[in-house]
TrEMBL record:
Name of the protein this chain belongs to: DUF427 domain-containing protein
Any Pfam family hit: NTP_transf_9
Lineage: Bacteria, Pseudomonadati, Pseudomonadota, Alphaproteobacteria, Rhodobacterales
Naturally occurring in which organism (per UniProt): Ruegeria pomeroyi (strain ATCC 700808 / DSM 15171 / DSS-3)
Domain DUF427 per the UniProt entry, residue ranges: 15-104
Length: 114
């Protein structure tokens, strides 16, 4: 694992919502801390309502985690473009986040401990 990235089980239960819709809740979320950045909560894909997510063309590369794929959140009231990312084939040191989704926090996307 990269010496500046820490992954641990996120304590308690977490939820993610967008546009008034609850996209998921999980007691199996992971917390990824990277350097001085705020921790990011990663949700198991199985705990997220994937029907709200539409894969986008956006990709990014992190030298420590690998290539990220993005999804837009689509619900009745809005589309939040490129609001979700996933390392579907992470670098070997980051295997623990494979199959997990993280969310770009904004006015319309909230991740909270419940």
């Amino acid at each position: 694992m990269s010496d500046h990235i820490t992954i641990r089980k996120a304590p308690g239960k977490w939820s993610v919502r967008s546009g008034g819709a609850i996209l998921g809740e999980s007691s199996d979320a992971l917390e990824l801390s990277e350097g001085d950045l705020p921790p990011v909560i990663y949700f198991p894909r199985a705990d997220i309502a994937m029907a709200f997510l539409d894969r986008s063309d956006k990709t990014t590369h992190c030298p420590h985690k690998g290539d990220a794929s993005y999804y837009s959140i689509v619900n009745r009231s809005s589309v939040t473009k490129d609001a979700v990312w996933s390392y579907e084939d992470p670098l070997p040191a980051m295997e623990r986040i494979k199959g997990y989704l993280a969310f770009v926090l904004s006015d319309s996307v909230k991740v909270e401990q419940i």
